[in-house]
Specification:
By secondary structure, the chain is an alpha/beta fold. It has one domain: TIM Barrel (Alpha-Beta Barrel), CATH 3.20.20.140. The chain is built from eleven helices and ten strands. The chain has helices at about 1-25, 50-60, 85-95, 120, 155-170, 185-190, 190-195, 195-210, 225-235, 255-260, 280; strands at about 40-45, 65-70, 100-105, 125-130, 135, 140-145, 175, 215, 240, 245. The strands form two sheets. An eight-stranded parallel β-sheet has the order 9-8-7-4-3-2-1-10. A two-stranded antiparallel ribbon has the order 5-6. Helix 2 links the parallel strand 1 (about 40-45) and strand 2. Helix 5 packs parallel to helix 8 and helix 8 crosses helix 9 (about 225-235). The chain is globular. Residues about 1-30 have low confidence and may be disordered. The structure holds zinc ion (ZN). Zinc ion binds next to strand 1.
Amino acid sequence: MRALLSRRDFLTQSAVASCALAASASAAEDMSKVVPAFLVVDFHTHLDNSTIEDVLRLSEERKVKFGIVEHAGTKENKYPVVLSNDEELSAYIASLEGKPVYKGIQAEWTDWMSCFSRDVLARLDYVLTDMMTWPGANGQRQKMWEPGLDVGDPATFTDRYVDFYVNNMELMPIDVLANVSWLPEPFARDYDALWTEARVGKVVDAAVRHSIAIEISSGFNLPKIAWLKQAKAAGVKFSFGSNGRYPKMGLLDHSLAMARELTLTQDDLFTPIEGKKAVQRRL
Ligand SMILES: [Zn+2]
């Protein structure tokens, strides 16, 4: 582990050095026009209300590759489309076959793995999920962004929320954790106080332990920079995501601004690798 980290530190230092050179060469240029040192992918786009043809046109226009995610899990999860068995998942995968997109699912709740066989899941490029649906007062799934959330005391809530993150990251074969660090309305204003270094550390450690990428969300402009710096220092990989529906896909200004601030290179970014996908490593 130590050897790995020092190699990573070396690579990061080299990247910082080359970025510094590039910055001084173009000091007068608008930083937003500097071509990033990596392939720009929006790994969090939804096909709702659009066709794949429209989406591909947009991808070309915006020079952003798209990863498409369809909601997946039991039919108790309520979304316009929820893939719930091998047949539905296979048809979805087939519909994207040969198209220049990554094929993913947004896994729902904690029992989604029971809906599918490993073989069919492994034909996806990646599995993404978030922690915004959690066990409410009676243990039933509850979308935290909908009314009626009983959150109680902020510190107790956040400790329970962090445990929910870590437990799911331990149990689920996921590649990308999306909408990370989002807090429900009553607590969003206390973000800095609630996301202490210790709480961030628990999530970040689980991400490193299981090679789970952390999404830098341009949908929510989260996680905030201190959170991201702690994750980067620990060796976490990142992905970019808009959580966009057509035509709001591939709009990654915030993700790219954070990537510049963190001097991310291709090596810091998530890329699906055949044979090393989470369902292949962990199921
Ligand atoms: Zn989503």
